[in-house]
Specification:
This protein is mainly β. It contains 1 helix and 9 strands; from the N terminus they run αβββββββββ. The chain starts with 9 loop residues before the first helix and ends with a strand.
């Protein structure tokens, strides 16, 4: 994983990784992938959770959403738990789309334990305060929840 942070002083890198542990996920070795393929519709928004990519340092859940009306590009508010009591750090990011359809990934650390049932809950969607909205459609928050249970026993090992 060092190639991503080449030239970054060790102390600065340690602070960055403590604040943003999701940066450790992508460069860590692949453990396997769980095909989720679950779809739920609530309040006119349908979410598809496609897969869970499990790596040694964490996991990415890949999702898509489609709204039945123009609502603007919104950020999901997500929580993740499992039946083992694991405490997860969760960040929704790396997404894109338009006023009615968007997709992205949810980063979680640590990696879920093998055999755990992971529950992904999207409580709702709202504007991301970090990003000014340039959309023609003013964003209107949408409430959920959407719940997805993922059994990590179904992981396809590399």
């Amino acid at each position: 994983m060092d190639f991503m942070f080449e030239g970054t002083p060790a102390e600065e890198l340690a602070k960055l990784l403590e604040m943003m542990p999701e940066l450790k996920i992508a460069p860590s070795p692949l453990v396997g992938v769980v095909s989720v393929a679950q779809v739920q519709g609530v309040n006119g928004v349908t979410i598809e959770v496609l897969s869970l990519e499990v790596r040694e340092a964490g996991a990415f859940a890949f999702w898509r959403a489609l709204a039945d009306r123009n609502i603007g590009f919104l950020q999901p508010r997500v929580s993740i738990t499992d039946d083992r009591g694991t405490q997860y750090h969760v960040v929704a990011g790396n997404g894109g789309g338009n006023e009615r359809s968007w997709a992205g990934e949810i980063a979680m650390t640590p990696a879920p334990p093998t055999g755990a049932t992971v529950t992904i809950v999207v409580d709702g969607f709202g504007p991301d305060e970090r990003i000014p909205m340039l959309s023609r459609v003013p964003p209107t928050p949408v409430g959920g929840p959407w719940r997805f249970a993922v059994d990590t026993r179904d992981i396809r090992r590399r």
